[in-house]
Amino acid sequence: xxxxxxxxxxxxxxxxxxxxxxxxxxxxxxxxxxxxxxxxxxxxxxxxxxxxxxxxxxxxxxxxxxxx
Length: 68
Description:
Blueprint: H1 5-18, E1 24-25, H2 26-34, H3 41-50, E2 55-56, H4 59-65
Antiparallel strand pairs: 1-2
């Protein structure tokens, strides 16, 4: 799957507004993504596969890890 500018913006919004709290670990973020109907199965899978394991202190750390 290609990470288009539109998809980058979609992920950017998700980690910035749809994640309830930080710090958040990989599982928290993937769960939050999986609960959103605006993401396709492939988009959720990409997020899950490309997000490194660990704990993130804020949305900026997630965006950096995903190269958004």
